[in-house]
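Bit of a strange request maybe. I'm writing a small parser for structure token strings and I need a real example to test against, not something I typed by hand. Could someone generate the tokens for this chain?
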Amino acid sequence: MNVLATCLDDLSFSHVVFGAFGSRPDCTIASASGLLNVIPDGYFILADAGLVLSTKVLVPHEGVRYHPQEYRNDRGPRTPEELFNHL
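Reply from user aminoacidic:
Good idea to test on real output. This should exercise your parser:
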């Protein structure tokens, strides 16, 4: 069973959708949940690359280091895009 949950900056849950059986893409579940309709103006969702849906969803930059293991033996992010992905 897939679960899509979002939380606010105080770590309280604001939106939870469960019951999507099987291997459905994140964007399919989020679209069907109505999540994008409840995001107020000026707010955004931080998500992984699987949730590219709208300008309200911020996802990592493509073609830029993203996973922690990619930063091993290095001094950390070298560009603003890598810093965004790393955080």
